Task: structure prediction
Amino acid sequence: MKRFIPLMVAAVPVTATVLLFAWGCGGGGGDDSGSNITGSTPTPTPTASAATPTPTPTASTATPTPTPTASIATPTPTPVPTATATPTPAPTATATPTPVPTATTIAVTNNASAPMGFSFAGPITVKSGTSVTWHNQSAGPHNVIWDGFTPNTSTSPGANIGTFSAGATSSAWVAPTVTTNTTYNYHCGIHGPTMAGVVIVTP
Ligand SMILES: [Cu+2]
Result:
């Protein structure tokens, strides 16, 4: 057992040296590890992401309120009163003038009271230009011979009318154009002056 003493004595300095050495190394790094040893949690430095900038409003967001156009401000037109419809007067019935016959027929008939047993109808009145014919409704033939006219300054009657037989119609006589009422006398050339007739022509 005695032999271990020197070893132990010799070991003490060695151990001390080791301990001193270990202590020195620990002390040397005291500055760096000191803060860690305290355990205090460091305040996190705010990251850049935390400082997200407020988005700048875009132009679209700043769309200006449209200025009212002129049309919106157009005043409602005041209705113009419509003109009161004046009723169109109903046209009065135009008096239709009695048509002037453009043709006239003079009947020639049997007449027992007449000197020659026949007679011309009439007197008749026609307007200038009227076409006049004699319709023989008697049993005998007749014709028309102009005798004279009144006033005698008026228009001449023209040519005589030839013979037209029983049942026939004479040729036409156009009433002369006159400026005053004119009376034309005639007779039947076959039966003589007692078988006479009258035509009055107006302008
Ligand atoms: Cu006659």
About this structure: The longest strand covers residues 192-202.
